[in-house]
Amino acid sequence: MDNLAAPGAKTVISELIDATPAGISRAEIATATGFSSSTVSNIVRELINTGEVDESPTASTGGRRTQVLKPTHRHDPIWLSEIGSAHARIGIADRPGNLVATEEVPVSLTDRPQVVLSRIIEHLKVLSEKALAKPSAAALGIALPGPVDRSLQMVVGAARMPGWNNVPLAPILNELVLAPVEIDNDARAGAIGECAMREDAPGTWNGIYVKAGTGIGGAAVLNGEIYTGGGGLAGDIAHNSVPEAGDRPCSCGRAGCMETVASGAGIIRALGEEGIDVHTVAQVVERAEQWDPVVTAMLRSAGTSVGRVLAPLVTFLNPTDVIVGGSLSSIDVFTASIRSELYARCLPMTTKDLTIEASLTKADAALYGMAELCFAAINRTNQGAPTSS
Hints:
By secondary structure, the protein is of the alpha/beta class. The chain has helices at residues 9-18, 26-33, 37-49, 113-132, 169-176, 186-198, 259-262, 264-273, 281-289, 293-317, 332-345, 348-351, 365-382, and strands at residues 53-57, 67-71, 78-83, 87-95, 98-106, 139-144, 148-149, 154-155, 181-185, 207-212, 216-222, 225-227, 321-325, 355-358. The chain has 13 helices and 14 strands. Residues 1-5 have low confidence and may be disordered. Belongs to the ROK (NagC/XylR) family. Keywords: Kinase, Transferase.
């Protein structure tokens, strides 16, 4: 695809076609949007492949008939979920980059996968029916807070998800939903979602994404593609050692990992040691917004730890952006401390054009990312290629 005239060109064109049920030609789209004819043609081809639009000739008036595009409104929506330790965020997407409804569902990762996934699917069916009057899905995307082997569609070696390790999830989900299934790590999904929102043109964005919530993880996007590493586990920044963690035991079995002092769970534990009664990341955020001095100091220290771990990666990869997502990203002092540490530890020529900021997609980054993966799976199906499940 040639360079797009503006970010979100696909969404603009899709919405224009949706708003013109009588039909609109490619030339009319180019005139209305200012996009080049090649950009319009490439995006239209993708929309046709994913079943979102049809192209057919207008009624004959004696001359050459014009080909016009119309919304199909036949495709089922995409069902999405990002699963956390105590809740899942679910969403419904009717096209890439467009969530029509979201909701929080209480879950517990200590339950068996079948229990958690069944509960999520039940809520997705209700939400889909309520939002779009469609009780079925074209595809299902699940983001999980642990290392995921996408080729096997399972969690591997997740310290905080012992009942999920090495359990094939696609067969469980295929019994619940008759649709292609995509499964990935939550930080990687968030990076995909952020990339989709930020890229002016496919294959151009270089960024590091950090998911900071109950746990902490990361992902790197190089020239618009997620870097997965040789074993598919790239981005696991949580278990780098930092001096301020001392000998604090970590869920991975080691001691001194960044996760013990910079994740939401680590901060909650440290606050408990200070006699401050908090049990959720939401409570930590609430206290930070009220400028609780102890909470603020811990978040500042946590951001410094994250910046210390990210600094060598920023120097090595030279990204254009470091994006902070997850619940803790809404706290300015946390993101500001990451920024300060990166400026202090990296060379000026590395940081002079570097953007360090909170996620554009906020709590929904992973949902947007899983939607991208699901629509890509639908596209492969329409083109006769195999999907992940």
